[in-house]
Amino acid sequence: MGKRDNLKLTSVKIHQDIAENFKVESARTGFSLQKLVNRTMHLFMNEPEFKTKIMSYTALATSGSL
Q1: In a domain, 44, yes or no
Q2: What is the pLDDT of residue 5?
Q3: Does residue 33 form part of some domain?
Q4: What's the domain range around 53?
Q5: Which of 2, 20, 43, 63 satisfies CB 3.0 to 4.6 Å to 50 for a cystine?
């Protein structure tokens, strides 16, 4: 069983302007959305301070599940 066998395919809706800005930054730095999501989820589950910061983040307008 390889590393790819342990991956979960999912989809999410994100703000279009944030997605476009990230796409540019991702191309410039080589840091993919998959890397961001995996690392963010890991920090969220393992670092209480990070979890608190994310849970209390209010800079985005509420829309759907945001």
Answers
A1: yes
A2: 79
A3: yes
A4: 25-57
A5: 43
Look at residue 18 and tell me if it is in a domain: no
Does a structural domain hold residue 9?
A: no
- Extract the tokens encoding 23: 């796409």
Amino acid letter, 47 = E
Residues 6+ apart with CB under 8 A from 9: none
Torsion of CA 55, 18, 26, 45, to 10 degrees: 10
pLDDT at res. 56: 94
pLDDT digits (tens, 9 = 90+) for 3-62: 777 899 999 899 999 999 999 999 999 999 999 999 999 999 999 999 999 999 999 876
Count of domains in the chain?
1
